[in-house]
């Protein structure tokens, strides 16, 4: 049972970092102490189910992901098997790296998309 607490804590830490949120900011949003956040993220403590649901809202993730490490994906969305394997793998470092690449891609895509204002200047 201790491993599940460690896994949940790892996922909370990963998602919190992805949101560029400090433990202090996160603790304030959840109305808990920083010490408790630290204990949860290191697997030494846990949250109640209602608090986990609130965490999912704050971190924009599913409870299934937070507890089991798996997201429910819309079956109409195609993801290559290699991507799914990385996301389902227990190696949080690979999943984090993939997320960083995806975020970089989105930033590059947004940067290179012409705005409607630019489009009218060319006409």
Q: Would you spell out the secondary-structure blueprint of this structure?
A:
Elements (H helix, E strand, L loop, with lengths): L1 H17 L4 H8 L3 H8 L7 H11 L3 H6 L12 H8 L3 H21 L3 H7 L1
Structural category:
mainly alpha
Query: Termini distance?
Result: 64 Å
Level of helix content?
Answer: 55-70%
CATH architecture of the largest domain: Orthogonal Bundle
Give the number of domains: 2
How can the largest sheet be summarized?
A: none
What is the overall number of helices? 8
Q: Describe it for me?
A:
The chain has 123 residues and is an all-alpha fold. The chain is 70% helix and 0% strand. It contains eight helices and no strands. Helix 2 crosses helix 3 and helix 6 crosses helix 7. The longest helix has 21 residues.
Summarize the structure.
By secondary structure, the protein is mostly helical.
Question: Could you name the key traits of this structure?
Answer:
123 residues, 434 Repressor (Amino-terminal Domain), 2 domains, 8 helices, 0% strand, globular, disordered C terminus
């Amino acid at each position: 049972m201790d491993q599940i607490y460690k896994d949940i804590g790892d996922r909370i830490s990963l998602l919190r970092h992805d949101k560029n949120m400090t433990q202090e900011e996160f603790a304030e949003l959840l109305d808990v102490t920083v010490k408790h956040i630290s204990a949860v993220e290191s697997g030494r403590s846990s949250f109640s189910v209602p608090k986990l649901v609130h965490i999912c809202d704050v971190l924009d993730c599913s409870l299934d992901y937070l507890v089991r490490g798996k997201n429910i994906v819309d079956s109409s969305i195609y993801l290559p098997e290699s991507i799914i394997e990385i996301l389902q793998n227990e190696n949080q470092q690979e999943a984090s790296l993939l997320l960083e690449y995806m975020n970089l891609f989105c930033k590059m895509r947004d940067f290179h998309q012409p705005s409607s204002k630019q489009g009218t200047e060319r006409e």
